[in-house]
Design brief:
Elements lengths: L1 H26 L4 E3 L15 H6 L3 E2 L3 E5 L7 E4 L1 H6 L8 E3 L3 E5 L4 E7 L2 H5 L3 E7 L45 H24 L1
Helix pairs in contact: 1-5
């Protein structure tokens, strides 16, 4: 009986360790940015400047911006640059969110334009431009495909002359291992080390 209790303790410690490591890995990469802080998404007052707030933060792929507001009284629209500049709340291409707690995850780099769904609020500067930084780690690097190649094709030779041979495409090295494989290997190593140390401590 003591042996089965000992095995159950080892299993419980092992499972707890795996859960803790998984939670750490899941939360380590992305940040949630709550716009407006405790005040939330609202018409800015004299101390609130959404543009300055956005410029002071480093948004990266995988991060989220969180809008908290009163449903029914306000909303958030993701719009084009032109709609942003003109506070166009009637744009058919706008993505509208009105649930009171909108978390928008950035899945690519570049500019993202958000305005209030209430035109009067937008005209009072309830809008924000977020610039998401490009991923410079080459984790998502893929070799160029022939369809998007920038190789130049030689112009045809004058009549009676042979065309020059096409320029061979440069050789590309395989992409480096991606972050997922690095995280997985780190996770496997951590679980193994944790399991080994737990077993030694319980013996």
């Amino acid at each position: 009986m003591a042996n089965s209790i000992h095995k159950n303790n080892i299993n419980a410690v092992f499972v707890l360790g795996i859960v803790c490591v998984m939670l750490l890995i899941q939360k380590s990469g992305a940040t949630d940015f709550a716009i407006g802080g405790s005040r939330g998404w609202a018409v800015p007052d004299s101390s609130t400047h959404y543009s300055q707030w956005a410029e002071g933060n480093r948004f990266q792929i995988g991060d989220s911006i969180v809008f908290n507001y009163s449903p029914g009284q306000d909303s958030v629209l993701r719009v084009t640059q032109d709609d942003y500049n003109n506070c166009n709340t009637d744009s058919p291409s706008a993505e509208k969110y009105s649930d009171g707690h909108t978390a928008f995850k950035f899945n690519q780099s570049g500019p993202f334009y958000f305005i209030s769904g209430n035109k009067d609020n937008c005209l009072k500067n309830e809008k924000v431009l977020v610039i998401v930084l490009a991923d410079r780690s080459n984790r998502n690097a893929t070799p160029p495909s022939p369809s998007n190649s920038t190789d130049m094709t030689p112009s045809p030779a004058p009549s009676g002359e042979a065309s020059p041979p096409p320029t061979p495409a440069p050789e590309t090295s395989p992409p480096p291992p991606n972050a997922a494989s690095s995280i997985f290997m780190s996770f496997v190593g951590s679980v193994g080390a944790f399991a080994a140390s737990s077993t030694l401590l319980l013996l």
